[in-house]
């Protein structure tokens, strides 16, 4: 963005001195605007954390007079969940819901409990000020984004994220309508603010296609029904051509890179330059290569001015077995901090270890790029209590699919991801 204040226009020489009247009418408002502007810079320009509590919030709470001192390295990814009141931002009637995650409508037990926790980022305030406020004002955000477009690309966990975002914004523009152009899988247009938010489904980010067994090259025919050919160097068509359409892009991949989506009878086979890669890559090696190629493509094709985010892996909470082995997440409270490693540290070989494994590869691939990591993993690791579990809105769904300890109930945890994303967007736009 432009920074109009960088070079203030030189004062215009004037032949006549200003009359007192002109002084009052012109100068005073200018001085006032200048003061407001300085206060604004002070508040939002410098400190990422303060941005976590966006403008409308701060003004409403009259915080501008007590600006706390913040450390430079404030990080919303670290912190703790505390009991607090978190008014629901939307209800089961939001038109952007996906049925299986509409926990209010599906009668999920404990929805109040799920939404009674507030994420308090590790305090970056050196002198304890008033307790931090969370959330943001959707109307103020939409105004700040007027005329802009925000795109999400990735798997169903990014869809989960975008539904939370759409429903939150819907509360500020009831005339929002569904929007599915440009190959979007789902999206919304907010006419009062001319803002578009959409999701492009591309579960592996690269293009992949089913190849029946006849297409197999010699040798590996035996038990394989066929395979999925992944072209590591070809981005999926669902998003390849929208790179300059959006002003903000949020990527993710991760949940399909495992044997439950691609078991050995129907594996992934990685291709580069149109040829199978030799030696064949394991699924995680394939992910590493796809991440590198995707990041390279984003660097080449997405305009510099576009804000780019990569969302870190969303953790799963299957307890006592995998999703197809009666794995369960009927918890009433978040996990305690000292239990997190037992669940997630890859060294413990638990069912949910892949979140941190995938994150490691993401972190590596993003190094040296202008893509910001949106690190929501740690805060989400606590929330074993917040998945749809057995309340899936369909009879027999649990029998067939097992519990859903992967996606999140809405309203719920992704609303906090939205808080962090919004704070980051406002911060980055403010910084230019
Ligand atoms: C995300 O944040 C957590 C908590 O601060 C940290 O432990 C983890 O290493 C971060 N992950 C990545 C990929 O940066
Ligand atoms: C759901 O929220 C919308 C928008 O805020 C409101 O108009 C509607 O009455 C609410 N519905 C229910 C059932 O509470
Ligand atoms: C994307 O655009 C290019 C150039 O216009 C075109 O060749 C390509 O087929 C398009 N790809 C998809 C998936 O639409
Ligand atoms: C991916 O990129 C990272 C960082 O540039 C590099 O360390 C790694 O070797 C690359 N991996 C592959 C498989 O290309
Ligand atoms: C899951 O639970 C059902 C019913 O209790 C049982 O019949 C089945 O054997 C269990 N499956 C596994 C893999 O433990």
TrEMBL record:
It holds the Pfam family PC-Esterase. The chain crosses the membrane at residues 21-41. Residues 136-423 form the Trichome birefringence-like C-terminal domain. InterPro entries: TBL, TBL_C, TBL_N. It is found in: Golgi apparatus membrane. GO terms for molecular function: xylan O-acetyltransferase activity. It comes from the Eukaryota. Residues 73-124 form the Trichome birefringence-like N-terminal domain. It is a single-pass type II membrane protein. GO terms for cellular component: Golgi membrane. The keyword Transmembrane helix applies. Keywords: Golgi apparatus, Membrane, Signal-anchor, Transmembrane, Transmembrane helix. Signal peptide: none annotated. Its main location: Golgi. Belongs to the PC-esterase family. TBL subfamily. This is Uncharacterized protein. The lineage of its organism: Eukaryota, Viridiplantae, Streptophyta, Embryophyta, Tracheophyta.
């Amino acid at each position: 963005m432009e920074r109009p204040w960088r070079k203030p226009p030189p004062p215009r020489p004037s032949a006549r001195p200003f009359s007192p009247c002109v002084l009052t009418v012109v100068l005073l408002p200018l001085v006032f605007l200048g003061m407001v502007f300085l206060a604004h810079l002070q508040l939002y320009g410098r400190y990422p954390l303060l941005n976590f509590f966006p403008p409308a919030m701060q003004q409403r709470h009259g915080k501008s007079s007590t600006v706390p001192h913040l450390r430079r390295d404030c990080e919303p990814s670290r912190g703790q969940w505390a009991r607090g009141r978190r008014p629901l931002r939307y209800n089961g009637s939001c038109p952007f819901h996906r049925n299986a995650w509409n926990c209010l409508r599906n009668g999920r037990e404990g929805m109040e409990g799920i939404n009674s926790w507030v994420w308090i980022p590790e305090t970056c305030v050196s002198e304890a000020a008033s307790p931090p406020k969370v959330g943001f004002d959707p109307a103020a955000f939409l105004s700040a984004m007027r005329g802009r477009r925000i795109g999400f690309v990735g798997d169903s966990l990014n869809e989960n994220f975008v539904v939370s975002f759409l429903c939150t914004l819907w509360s500020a523009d009831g005339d929002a309508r569904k929007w599915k152009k440009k190959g979007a899988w789902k999206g919304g247009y907010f006419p009062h603010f001319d803002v578009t938010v959409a999701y492009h489904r591309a579960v592996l980010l690269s293009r992949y296609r089913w190849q029946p067994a006849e297409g197999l090259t010699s040798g590996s025919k035996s038990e394989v029904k066929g395979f999925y050919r992944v072209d590591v160097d070809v981005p999926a068509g669902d998003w390849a051509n929208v790179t300059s359409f959006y002003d903000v892009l949020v990527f993710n991949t991760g949940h399909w890179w495992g044997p439950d989506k691609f078991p050995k009878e129907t594996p992934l086979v990685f291709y580069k330059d149109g040829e199978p890669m030799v030696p064949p890559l394991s699924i995680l090696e394939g992910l590493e290569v796809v991440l590198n190629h995707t990041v390279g493509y984003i660097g080449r094709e997405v305009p510099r001015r576009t804000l780019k985010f990569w969302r870190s892996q969303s953790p799963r909470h299957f307890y006592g077995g995998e999703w197809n082995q009666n794995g369960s997440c009927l918890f009433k409270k978040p996990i305690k901090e000292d239990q997190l490693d037992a669940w997630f540290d890859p060294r413990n070989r638990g069912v949910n270890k892949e979140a941190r494994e995938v994150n490691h590869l993401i972190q590596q691939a993003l190094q040296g790029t202008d893509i910001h990591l949106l690190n929501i993993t740690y805060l989400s690791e606590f929330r074993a209590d917040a998945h749809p579990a057995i309340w899936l809105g369909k009879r027999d769904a649990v029998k067939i699919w097992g519990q859903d300890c992967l996606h999140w109930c809405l309203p719920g945890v992704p609303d906090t991801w939205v808080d962090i994303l919004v704070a980051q967007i406002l911060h980055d736009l403010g910084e230019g």
